[in-house]
Design a protein that fits this description.
564 residues, alpha+beta, eight-stranded mixed β-sheet, four-stranded mixed β-sheet, 23 strands, globular
């Protein structure tokens, strides 16, 4: 992740003239209305976002970055929040080859960027190769950082691996090839992607917010996109954002894209209120200063009573102004391969059965998570409930009794070390799991490791359990499954690996879904992991809003917002 204290730019430099040219199409909109006038416009809305690290897709790294990217850029596809199906967004259609080794996207005629430039196949090729490339960056501060020896270092997008199955990906990153051979513009409206191996799920991958197109710009203006990205999405950026100039704005203003053809936009613009503290942001919502806001965990129950929970998980209507749904993600326990006592299936099963997931969610996590009865890290579709995820401490004790009989006090000669990353909610989850295991006679030593020492601690011989937080890059069943398998965190059996290869190559959506279920059912029997909880998001809208929709990750779709 790019350190916010570091000013980064391409070695070629940052051209003011290039910035002026790139933003020329936005000047009339910026001059047309002052900030104060916009704030009081009846067709403007305000939406709270956490503080972004960057509003440029290349440097996007956190949830706030992706939320802004989703408003400024339209990728080729979108995942339907109700069905999980992949649908065209910036493209009109896509077709996968019979061998799943190529896919062709067709683009509409007349689509334009915010500055009026045409959106064509080359726009996506340019953007994707920008994401995939390794960039030589210059650093003017923090010169003691070993990455920056000599005043430069190599920056890589955290989402570059989304494109790793495209032909030429590795070559383009390790040499001066200057592009990926597998991205081909057959004409202005036809983009063909060739893969180095079958990639039947690529249409879902193409929905990621950082994979929208970018307009042509001079090589010397690489940093222009950092300050004021020009995209093809429903809104155009009116605020220059530079987190390194000491003048970070607390508001980011967006105007509706006048030539946006994907859907009619009712509002004229949106003010993104940058507020890192959810509680402070919610107070602003309660005083009428914010129209779309997150709800603090501690205040969810009161908000539900005050505003009404929508019957649709990803939409709100007047009178039902609160939306709450599962977010892409999963907190799970990994049983370290070869570590006792988890070489035994009964011990793995006992640990999972001993965890009171329902109480963990209600009392410790304050309804910000829901219990995971299967390892589903994506919001749509369902998996078979794992028997080992059902709370049954009596059965857990029975399974442990043979190898680790309890003494008169209920303790067993069985102790484990549980490792997790320091910070966030994992510490509370680990403590609760330790108490649950203690109740069945297992003693747990908890180790919290900082990110830079985590792998070293994982290599310790005494670590037998790891608590992990997984947020799949693509919240689609097949893509998330392949990502999990590719990560190599758990050892997969030969049968599981065979299913992975079949998922990658299966063109038929129904058959691919069946193979995904079979993969997780197999893991449910082998139990290399124990699913624990899944995160939830919760949003509320003001009484000015008649209707609003949210995408599969809980990001507001302001282009769909309807005013009263």
């Amino acid at each position: 992740m790019l350190d916010r204290r570091v000013f980064v730019g391409s070695v070629a430099g940052f051209g003011a003239a290039s910035l002026a040219g790139l933003l020329a199409g936005c000047d009339d909109r910026r001059a047309a209305q002052s900030s104060a006038e916009r704030a009081h416009s009846s067709k403007w809305v305000s939406c709270r976002i956490p503080e972004p690290a960057s509003i440029d897709p290349l440097y996007a790294s956190c949830a706030a970055d992706l939320e802004i990217c989703s408003l400024l850029f339209d990728p080729l596809t979108r995942i339907n929040v109700e069905t999980g199906a992949v649908e065209p967004l910036a493209c009109t259609s896509f077709s996968l080859a019979d061998d799943a080794r190529s896919i062709t996207f067709r683009l509409p005629q007349g689509a334009v960027f915010h500055n009026g430039d045409p959106v064509d196949a080359a726009s996506f090729k340019r953007a994707w190769e920008r994401i995939a490339a390794r960039h030589v960056m210059s650093a003017l501060q923090d010169d003691d950082d070993p990455r920056q020896a000599g005043g430069t270092y190599i920056y890589e997008s955290p989402f570059a691996s989304l494109l790793k199955d495209i032909e030429g990906y590795d070559e383009s990153r390790s040499s001066d090839v200057g592009g990926m051979a597998g991205i081909r513009c057959l004409d202005d409206s036809t983009l063909e992607i060739r893969f180095s191996r079958p990639c039947a799920n690529f249409a879902a991958i193409a929905s990621h917010p950082v994979l929208g197109p970018v307009p042509a710009y001079d090589d010397g203006a690489q940093s222009v996109m950092m300050a004021a990205p020009v995209g093809n999405g429903p809104f155009a950026c009116q605020t220059e954002w530079n987190p390194d100039d000491g003048k970070k704005p607390r508001h980011i203003e967006l105007t509706a894209h006048k030539n946006y053809s994907a859907a009619p936009i009712q509002i004229e613009g949106a003010t993104l209120v940058v507020q890192g503290d959810t509680h402070a942001a919610y107070k602003s919502f309660q005083t009428g200063d914010v129209d779309v806001c997150d709800v603090p965990v501690e205040q969810y129950r009161e908000a539900e009573k005050a505003y009404g929970l929508s019957e649709e998980s990803h939409a709100v209507l007047a009178g039902r102004r609160l939306a709450r749904a599962a977010a892409p993600g999963l907190v799970y326990l990994e049983y370290v391969s070869g570590a006792k006592p988890f070489t035994e299936h009964d011990a793995r099963r006992a640990v999972s059965l001993a965890i009171d997931r329902e109480t963990l969610c209600e009392k410790q996590l304050r309804s910000s998570y829901e219990q995971a009865t299967a390892p589903k890290a994506w919001p749509t579709a369902e998996l078979t409930v794992w028997e080992a995820c059902v709370f049954d401490p009596e059965l857990a004790a029975e399974l442990l009794e043979k190898e680790y009989p309890a003494d008169k006090d209920g303790a067993r000669d069985c102790s484990v070390t549980l490792l997790h990353r320091a910070g966030g909610v994992l510490g509370r989850i680990a403590s609760t799991i330790a108490e649950d295991l203690k109740a069945v006679g297992v003693q747990v030593k908890i180790v919290a490791a900082e990110a830079d020492e985590f792998d070293e601690r994982l290599a310790d011989d005494d670590v037998s359990l790891v608590l992990r937080n997984w947020e799949p890059a693509i919240p689609d069943a097949a893509s998330a499954t392949l990502e999990f398998a590719r990560a190599g965190v758990v050892h997969l059996s030969g049968d599981a690996q065979e299913l992975v290869d079949e998922i990658r190559a299966e063109r038929d959506e129904a058959k691919r879904s069946s193979k995904v279920s079979a993969f997780w059912d197999l893991l449910g029997r082998d139990l290399p992991i124990a699913p624990v909880v899944r995160p939830l998001w919760c949003k509320v809208v003001s009484d000015r809003v008649a209707g609003e929709r949210f995408d599969i990750a809980g990001r507001p779709r302001l282009e769909a917002l309807q005013l009263v």
